[in-house]
Amino acid sequence: MSTTVSTPDANATCTYCGARIFDHDPICVRDCTDDCGSPTYFCNYACLSAHIDENDLTAGNACEWSPE
């Protein structure tokens, strides 16, 4: 699986709050279980975390640990 790395536009905005990502500490997220689609940008980890919580994105996707 290969991915192309590129810098987003200087005016790219956060998927969650709409702030300019480069005014903060930007994070790029891709869904690589679906052909590494278009990147989604968040201005910081707080917005990424809120987006995950509000969209229930961990349900059914969390790794399971078993001591066996």
**Integer average pLDDT:** 82
Q: What share of residues is helical?
A: 10-25%
Gross morphology is globular
Radius of gyration: 14 Å
Q: What do you see in this structure?
A:
- This protein has 68 residues and is largely without helices or strands.
- The chain has one helix at 45-54; strands at 27-29, 40-42.
- It has a two-stranded antiparallel sheet.
- The chain starts with 26 loop residues before the first strand and ends in a 14-residue tail after the last helix.
Brief descriptors of the model:
68 residues; two-stranded antiparallel sheet; little secondary structure; 1 helix; 2 strands
Show the helix and strand layout.
Elements: E1 27-29, E2 40-42, H1 45-54
Antiparallel strand pairs: 1-2
